[in-house]
Design a protein that fits this description.
Blueprint lengths: L7 E3 L2 E3 L18 E4 L4 E3 L5 E4 L1 E3 L3 E6 L2 E2 L7 E4 L8 E8 L4 E3 L3 E5 L4 E4 L4 E3 L5 E4 L1 E3 L5 E6 L2 E2 L7 E4 L8 E8 L5 E3 L3 E5 L6 E6 L9 E6 L6 E9 L2 E4 L3 E2 L16 E5 L12 E8 L30 E6 L3 E5 L2 E5 L2 E5 L4 E3 L6 E3 L5 E5 L1 E2 L2 E9 L6 E7 L10 E8 L11 E6 L11 E5 L11 E4 L7 E8 L2 E8 L12 E8 L10 E8 L11 E11 L37 E4 L4 E3 L5 E4 L1 E3 L5 E9 L2 E4 L7 E4 L8 E9 L4 E3 L3 E5 L7
Amino acid sequence: METKNGRRKRGGIAYHAALLAVIVFVGCPPQQPAFTVQPQSQAVNPGDAAQFIVQAERADSLQWVKDGTDIARAEVPVLTIAAATKGDEGAYLCRAKNTVGYVDSNIAYLTVNDPPSITVQPAPVETTLGGEASLSIAATGTAPLQYQWYRNGQPLASATRAEIQIVSARLADIGIYSCEVTNVTNQTVVSTEAALTLSGYPAQGIAFTHVPAYGTQNDLYGVVYGVNPAEYKVVVYNETSWGYWVKPFIVADPSVSLSCSELDAEGSNWVCDVTTGPNDEYALGYVACLIPIGLVPPACGGNNGDWGGVPCPTEPDIDGAIGKVVVHRPARTINAFGMNWEVKSSPAPVDPGQHLFSADPNDVFVDENGYIHLVSRYRNSQWYSVEVASEQSFGYGTYVFQVQGLASPNDPNRTLGLFTYDTETTLATHREIDALELARWGNALDPMNCQYTMQPCTQCPGCDLCHRFALDDTQDFTTFLVWSEGHIEARTYQGDYLNTPPPSSALVAQWVHDGADVPAPGAEKARMNLWLLTGKDPSDGLEEEVVITGFAFQQEPPWNGGEGEGEGEGEGEGEGEGEGEGEGEGETPLPEISQQPASQVVNPGATVTFQVVASGGVQPLTYQWYKMIGATSEPIAGATSAALTIQNTTESDETGYFCRVGNATGPVKTLRTASGEHNPSKPTG
């Protein structure tokens, strides 16, 4: 039903009639292309292929673009560069087009790796043995760069940086060096060669890489450098106390496999069996020479397996050898007084004394106080001597030895030596200067038990290079050796004066020698030994122990600046060593002895007079005569003049006598002992 206003009503509901408009879509509107796979950046080596890959939807065409420029004939999803060069490096993208428009892919970069190139070559370098050295190069190329250094054509382990730093140069560091540089391109460039040399050493030679421990039967290892190993061989000699013995010839062979991890396997390695004979494990050292294959070296005790020959008495020198290396091997090393000491050992009799020398820790040791103990002991049915030597050579200066008093006087068949000695010199005297020898040389009745000596001196007394005197060796004593050009001075004081200036009142003996015969320094070491005389056992059959409580080396003797501070009465401010509280500025002049007392032989009941003549020093002089009782001495009551007279002599008077002459202010000087002996015949008349 139609109502007024044109509205129709249906079921009571009015509504408007309208036209029905229908929109019909016949298809979607066109859209731009879209990339579903983007190109990826990449780096390739020169000559390698590179590919960029895309996938795109709704694309009518594709166009690859490099650095903003279309690439000709590059209208495919996969862009392939068959052999990349540096010219191919750049920014790549793909442009997809259709009727609506175009869209660009992400940018992908192509990098062509740079091969290594050395811009700075290594330069030759010279250093000293133990000095610093470095070799370096500079290189460019795609990082990271890998470096490998070579010495004499052999790669050096851990030498994988642009620079080699050598902190302490060895003989084995001598050689021809080069460096190889590589990187991701798998291309390698090698530097020019550069030589590393040590001042005073040739460019070719030999070195040890492993020395077996004393007393073991392990092999000796080494390395040769700067040579073609196929053209050379190594000959080795054992050093013993009785000469040098040859060992088998070993051809230097770089293919030798070394099993010990501590050995240096770089270069041309060699190995030698150095224990082919009896007691070889106790060799004191080794000499190794690098010689041409065709050269025949000295036999030195063995030739073609025959070991019955005579060893070489001195270190072998081989004409034609291009390298030589020597190593000394102490049995043990101990540390005392702030330095290392080498302990002497010998399984066969050697000098001094032609006895065995022990390195047993029970015979030579350092106690909790840092003191060195030297014990001459009976073991394995034999008597042993002992000796230690400083690792360091000191040269000119002042040597100070401090010794604890012995439990009993030194046996007349034993000698305690405190001295310098050079085992490496060709000098017959070996630069031996005895700061003190505590020795009676087998004569138990000799009241003089000490001497200072500069070699050569075959008998003391009896030469101008020694001075004998008496010392109470049951009390602590300190002995000084002052050595300078053309000058030697030795002094011994009763007491401990390692760290304090000794007073003149403690002076026991003094000796000065000046002359052109005083040796110049070489490779001498400070030494301390306790040894038995040749063919002798201790007269008392007892072991003996000596305790060295101090050793020091200093440039000046302590008495150069005054001899300490007195604490007695008086001011002591003048020259020399006053006894008061003042500090002396110089040394009190000691008396000079112009006439020594002379030994005499008399008949029982005779009268003996010993006379001493002295002058100089601070006047008046004082005198005190002493009588030797064994190794000690006692002052003679009332014997205080320049002459000592003994009336009605008996056998009890037969001993040594000496006089100490002093200044009125206190210093005294020990004089050479004189002995009085009885004629064994009975008096007549």
